[in-house]
Amino acid sequence: MAMAADILIVGGGSTGASIAYHLAAARAGQITLLERATLASGTTGQSSAIIRQHYSIPTLARMAQRSLHTFRHFAEELGRDAGFRQTGLLIGARAEDAEGLRTTVAMHRELGIDSRMIDRDALHELEPRMVTDDLVGACYEPEAGYADPVATTMAYAHAARQLGAQIRQHTRVSSLLVEGDRVRGVLLEDGTQVETRTVIVASNVWGIKLLADAGISVPVRSTRHACILLQQPRDFGQQHAIIFDFASGLYLRPEGENLTMAGTLDESEAETVDPEHYNALPTHDEEERFAMRTAERFPAMGDATLQAGWAGLYDVSDDWQPLIGPFPGVEGLFCALGFSGHGYKLCPAIGTLVAEILLGRASPGIDRAIFSPDRFAMGAQAQSTYAFGIIG
Ligand SMILES: Cc1cc2nc3c(=O)[nH]c(=O)nc-3n(C[C@H](O)[C@H](O)[C@H](O)COP(=O)(O)OP(=O)(O)OC[C@H]3O[C@@H](n4cnc5c(N)ncnc54)[C@H](O)[C@@H]3O)c2cc1C
């Protein structure tokens, strides 16, 4: 049996759902999203969901700024809440980090982002429980926070449906149908062919094989990242801000009133894995390491107890930036993957950008070239100024 759509999106995470909504809102034609399991069942559901504007690359800072605006006004636009919670972000600055952070802050202030450097005394006043001996101060972004990635995806999918898009769950794409120099559709696992002139591969690490089977190689690998959830000791006090600790490569995110999520910023701690077969739980060593680093920075967390843990996947590209746009040489084939562990916070801007590209509209203030899938061959990569690629 054959079916048809104007635009097919493969993957129902935060990326695919946002793209479906933005295309449907722009009246781009009949939009169909195909998800092999359930919405947000991929890496979106594993996300720490930190929403910050701190990027050293101006285009990304701008996209994060626009996305944060959407998260703050989500229910007004989408009719449902994404659970945004403002907590602030503190990036501890050692002497060797200070200049890079200052440069980024200056760029942010030009963009109108509320970001500032604070000295050690001010840091101590803001967060007296934090060990600051090795720091000269911090970069402080008060507007940062986190939201609920599953609720975000559901809200985008719901709004897309209201605008006429079809969202089909439990529908796995087994291959892309490419004939000559253009895409013709996709083949589903049950043998159904779906005909279309435009396919958007928004299937994260699983998209690598889908593309490879169609003869397209992307410089993206699948890496495993563990997170743990700690119950704070009773006397810990008020909830802390999000913390990026460049010294130990640790990040901390508050959860609710008395929990702390801990993970690593350091890619050298992550192994490349087969996305279909990997250990989805933290190892004992990871649990100990993250808990120990947390207590080193926050001695008041020394008696924290482990509540939960999981390990998710990053779709890491060679320059840590996503691949968003058409594939030269295969008309109608687009991709939106390679988000390298920082794609959730950008999903509102990604949906906007994909709709602009497909509809031939301009993207003011956005340097699209740094996302071009063929930039690696063209040498147009944008490099973060930080040692941890994920900061961007
Ligand atoms: C541990 C962890 C922490 C993170 N922390 C943050 C953070 O703090 N801030 C941030 O901004 N980002 C963070 N990220 C990254 C962020 O979560 C991702 O970049 C983002 O959610 C990616 O969304 P996606 O829709 O592209 O991918 P996914 O959510 O993985 O969606 C892809 C979907 O495609 C489907 N699919 C795959 N193959 C097929 C097929 N053949 N047919 C049909 N469907 C298919 C999958 O089932 C999946 O649902 C984190 C990620 C992890 C793993």
Report the count of strand segments. 21
Helix segment count?
Answer: 10
CATH topology of the largest domain: FAD/NAD(P)-binding domain
Q: How would the global form be characterised?
A: globular
- Beta-strand portion reads 25-35%
Mean pLDDT: 95
Count of the domains: 2
Q: Which hetero compounds are present in the coordinates?
A: flavin-adenine dinucleotide
What is the level-2 CATH architecture name of the largest domain?
3-Layer(bba) Sandwich
Our Rg estimate from Cα atoms comes to 21 Å
The CATH class assignment of the largest domain is: Alpha Beta
Q: What is the CATH H-level superfamily of the largest domain?
A: FAD/NAD(P)-binding domain
Question: How would you explain this protein's 3D organization?
Answer:
- With 392 residues, this protein is α/β, with parallel strands linked by helices.
- It has two domains: 2-49 and 149-219 and 319-391, FAD/NAD(P)-binding domain; 86-144 and 221-316, D-Amino Acid Oxidase, Chain A, domain 2 (2-Layer Sandwich).
- Helices cover 27% and strands 27% of the residues.
- It contains ten helices and 21 strands.
- The chain has helices at 14-25, 58-72, 74-78, 95-111, 120-126, 149-162, 207-213, 284-297, 347-358, 375-378, and strands spanning 2-4, 7-10, 31-34, 50-51, 85-86, 89-93, 116-119, 137-141, 145-146, 166-168, 173-179, 182-188, 193-195, 198-201, 220-231, 242-245, 250-255, 259-264, 305-317, 323-326, 333-337.
- It has an eight-stranded mixed sheet, sandwiched between helices.
- A hairpin with a 2-residue loop joins strand 11 and strand 12 (182-188).
- It is globular, with a radius of gyration of 21 Å.
- The protein starts with a strand and ends in a 14-residue tail after the last helix.
- The relative contact order is 0.19.
- The model has no long low-confidence stretch (mean pLDDT 95).
